[in-house]
Amino acid sequence: MAASTGNSLAALLSQTHLDDHDEILKAANAQLAKSKSDVDAQHVRAVALLKLDRFDDALRQIEQGGDALKKRVPLEHAYALYKTGKLADAEQVAASAATSNGGRGAQHVLAQATYRGENFARAADVYKELATRPQDGEGFEHYNDLRINRLAVDAQLQWQPSHGKLAEKWSSGKVGREDLEAFETAYNAACSSIACGEFGQGEMLLKRAKDLCLASEDLTEEDKKAEIMPILIQQIYVLHKLRKFDEAAKLADEVSLQEYDPSTKHIARVNGMVRATEDTNPYLSSRSMQQSADLPVSDKPFAFQSNILDHNTYVMDLSSNKHRGVASTTLNKIAADPVASTHPITASLSVVNAAAHAKGARGRAGIKELLPLINKRPHDVGLALTIVQIYVNEGNYGAATPLLENFLVRLENSGNPDVLPTRFAPGVVGTLAALYAHAGRRGSVRQELTKAANYWLSNSSPATPPPASLLHAAGAALLESSQPADLEQAGKIFSALLAADSSNRGAAAGLVAAYASTHPDKIEAAQLDALTPVARLISDVDVDALESAGVATTVAPSQPPASAKRAAPKDKPDERKNKKMRKSRMPKKDFDPNKKVDAERWLPMRDRSYYKPKGRKGKLRQAGLTQGGVVADEKPQQQQQQQQASGGGGGANKKKKKGKR
């Protein structure tokens, strides 16, 4: 039966052309109409559907064929999964096919699936293995395509800080002559430069890629338009970063006249909103962004791109007063991540969530809205740092420091060891140390950095090395102390840094400084050789000039005793300044020299003898005043008052006086 089925299928296929996939599909359908369990017909139908880019139908056919068909077509199965966006399943099937002698095709699918699944480390390993294996008769085109894909992985690795050293293992990171021979390699090299922040070199490589693409004879005009659009989009981004806004605007007008794929169209629309100099209606901008945000599965941006685009969407929604929706969406994403996560994406979501709860309030008003949230989400790092930042912007360091201290205490006392890496994260520890330094608490800075360094030294592994920047800061802080225990701890920290990187000259210098006074025997000759020679340090010092100038000393000025008076200036008679002559007043025009001048003219009017106040009260008040007049003898009056007082006492007073005698 199988032989007759194969003969009938071969007869049907002999009537079609190998490039006519529609006819091949019709022949396979006709055979399956007779026998649904025909594996050969199922195989032919699945391949025909893949050739027609009907990937969902091809995957459905392979799934319906069962294990028998899956074992026969592992490469087609993996490719169908890859094209339908099921990247994890595609990676698993392709890896199984590659290990079971599936050929280079399975490895290529595995590399593509891991690349789109953003498992760039594994993609780099697969491409490295493909580059070292024999090419199975494949010529220069295979080598060129492989180099293009390797450069694409390299560019993606540059965007991943945790995998930066992995990219250096198989890529020098430098632009070679081969990178400038094809527009694809030039474009990928430009993307790698942009990821490293080298925008000048990226601009040069993008221009080279554009010129090569336009001059290519192997591409049709339609292909050139499709290939050049990503180059133009990257050029606009680079020009904007280089602050060449006029050139970026001119190039953006050129891009707007072209047709491009959905993801490029969406990115171009977002970049156009960023370049806008005039204020636009936030509701219309949000609607425009949502129109192009629905992208196909096969054309989804990578994670670092999607995060930026999502962040822009949240900002547009906040501008449109959609605070409740943004708060709900971001909170769901924050809850999906591990507790106390320090991932940049989660931290940025916490900031957006805080902005949504603040509803545009700033300063103290914003803090008033956010403080209740810290009680509901006590382990939210992004929220805590947001409140600390607002306090710092307001100049309230006294409130920022205890808030961060209490947050870290909650993490330590949570009983969950998974949150301790967040507690001692370099950024969190650095923030608290900066607050301590602002308050002049050098001891607290040293204590906090030492505590974090001890944690990382005791909880590190080859897979998760301790943060070198934090260890450097802790060692430098301990060197400021004169205590032997602190210097001993600094020596241990710098020893760990040297063990991780023997070429670390800063760690070698710190180790020598730590052990110079406590354990000189622990200093090796190689560590001393790593220091800058003394001759080089003093090469620009003029010894003769220093010797002739002498030793600079600071003499304290002699201060006279507090009771001594300032001596008069010893000036020569000729050098004394002339006293300022008083301006003379000319007499009045009606001045009569024969008239007698009033002798009391220097006294106030009320103190003059001839002053007569007006009114009855004024005269009585004047009579009671004695200033400037003759004082009468007061003794007779006092005696008279005493007699009156003694005479009015009565008989009781007389008896009392007798008793005293």
TrEMBL record:
Q: Which InterPro entries does this entry report, sorted A to Z?
A: Signal_recog_part_SRP72_RNA-bd, SRP72, SRP72_TPR-like, TPR-like_helical_dom_sf
Q: Does the keyword Zinc apply?
A: no
| A Pfam entry, by short name | SRP72
List this protein's GO terms for biological process: SRP-dependent cotranslational protein targeting to membrane
Q: Which UniProt keywords apply?
A: Cytoplasm, Endoplasmic reticulum, Ribonucleoprotein, Signal recognition particle
Give TM regions: none
User: Biased-composition ranges for Basic residues?
Assistant: 611-620
Which molecular-function annotation in GO is an example for this chain?
Answer: 7S RNA binding
Biased segments, Basic and acidic residues type: 568-577, 587-610
Instruction: Please tell me whether the keyword Transcription is annotated for this protein.
Output: no
Q: Which family does it belong to?
A: Belongs to the SRP72 family.
Function description: Component of the signal recognition particle (SRP) complex, a ribonucleoprotein complex that mediates the cotranslational targeting of secretory and membrane proteins to the endoplasmic reticulum (ER).
By what name is this protein known? Signal recognition particle subunit SRP72
Q: Which organism is it from?
A: Diplodia seriata
- Show the taxonomic lineage: Eukaryota, Fungi, Dikarya, Ascomycota, Pezizomycotina
